[in-house]
Design brief:
The chain is α/β, with parallel strands linked by helices. Helices cover about 35% and strands about 15% of the residues. The chain has a six-stranded mixed β-sheet with strand order 2-1-3-6-4-5.
């Protein structure tokens, strides 16, 4: 399938062929859900923790005599039923991530790209390079396209001037091609790929 390659000044420069096997895959909600869930699980810090009895500071002395006080017998002031004591079955530091087949991850990315193209919210530009790091100039160009919540995906590296101009625009972001992922693509309303990004993503997902 062919799409127009445009400039940031909204001029058609040429046409480029997009692979049907990558940009023409029918989306499936279950696959996209699995990949997004996998990504978000990997992002969780997993640093929540509570103290077990061995970690609670305090005396090891028996609170009071076993018999003769009329009270329930107690063995430690650090027990869970005591104020300031340990927590039973509380959260511990752990990794929330889980494994997901590479084929499923690649299929999810293909479906995310295909869904944007199907919704006519995928655009291809010749380059993201900017001569100046002026946010006002870049925002005017984005407003001319009507792009409000946009994700740019570039080549292996991103132009520094472009990044400086983009970082002050709300709900807009940019990633190198190796950082393209399902969550960020679906999170943004519009996806803009450079020619280098199309080439790199095609190589990456054709393996």
């Amino acid at each position: 399938m062919k799409v127009d390659v445009i400039t940031l000044d909204n001029k058609v420069k040429e046409q480029i062929e997009l692979s049907q096997d990558i940009f023409g895959v029918a989306p499936r909600k279950d696959i996209l859900f699995r990949v997004v869930n996998w990504q978000l699980a990997k992002r969780r810090a997993g640093t929540h923790s509570t103290k077990v009895i061995s970690e609670v500071s305090g005396t090891t002395k028996k609170p009071f005599a076993q018999k003769g006080t009329g009270r329930a017998r107690q063995g430690s002031l650090r027990s869970p039923q005591m104020r300031g004591g340990a927590t039973l079955f509380g959260p511990v530091v752990r990794d929330h991530g889980f494994s997901l087949l590479k084929k499923v991850r690649a299929l999810g990315l293909k479906m995310a790209l295909s869904s944007k193209l199907e919704d006519k919210k995928l655009f291809v530009i010749d380059t993201e390079k900017s001569s100046t790091p002026k946010t006002k100039e870049l925002k005017a160009k984005l407003d001319a396209f009507g792009w409000k919540k946009v994700l740019f995906v570039g080549g292996e590296t991103l132009d520094n001037n472009f990044m400086l101009a983009l970082k002050n625009i709300i709900n807009s972001d940019a990633l190198p091609s190796q950082g393209a992922n399902v969550y960020d693509i679906l999170k943004h309303d519009t996806l803009v790929l450079t020619k280098d990004a199309v080439e790199n993503l095609t190589k990456r997902l054709s393996k």
